[in-house]
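Bumping my old thread because nobody answered last time. Still need a sequence for this structure:
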């Protein structure tokens, strides 16, 4: 099946640290990448995806490449997931890539009362929700990795000044 086949493009997995302190890990990567940024088609960021509520996930950056919105919407509809597309790019490790003109998507399930607190424990994770997000991200990555043509990067309006670098985006109500 399709999920067993090798993608057309190389996929690099990276885990960054120092995001809250100023995107240190991701900024280091884009300055010394494992694969040249000129060959990097997209950055997919999963930051705060453990608490899916009401079947909704926010996807920032769907407008950072002309093709992204259609790709993400198609993947979500196949899985029966509700997504909210943000007009902005959001704030997290993907910003280091986006600032180097690499289109980026950020999957996010929203801020919660335990954010950055010791009370943010594993037992509060929505494991079924995380599995759904994994399927959505996998379908999105597959589509991106199997696209031969380069994506058309779009420069989006910058985030509000009040939002510090590395700070999770405020959820829309």
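Sorry it took so long. Here it is:
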């Amino acid at each position: 099946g399709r999920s067993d086949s090798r993608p057309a493009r190389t996929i690099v997995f990276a885990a960054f640290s120092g995001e809250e302190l100023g995107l240190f890990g991701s900024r280091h990567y884009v300055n010394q990448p494992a694969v040249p940024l000129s060959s990097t088609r997209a950055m997919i960021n999963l930051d705060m995806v453990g608490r899916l509520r009401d079947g909704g996930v926010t996807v920032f950056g769907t407008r950072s490449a002309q093709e992204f919105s259609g790709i993400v919407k198609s993947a979500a509809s196949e899985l029966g997931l509700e997504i909210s597309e943000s007009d902005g790019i959001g704030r997290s490790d993907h910003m280091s890539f986006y600032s180097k003109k690499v289109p980026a998507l950020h999957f996010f399930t929203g801020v919660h009362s335990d954010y950055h607190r010791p009370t943010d424990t594993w037992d509060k994770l929505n494991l079924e929700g995380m599995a759904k997000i994994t399927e959505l991200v996998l379908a999105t990555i597959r589509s991106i990795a199997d696209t031969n043509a380069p994506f058309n990067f779009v420069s989006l309006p910058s985030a509000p000044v009040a939002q510090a670098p590395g700070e999770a985006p405020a959820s829309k109500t």
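Strands lie at 43-46, 56-60, 82-85, 104-108. Let me know if any region looks off to you.
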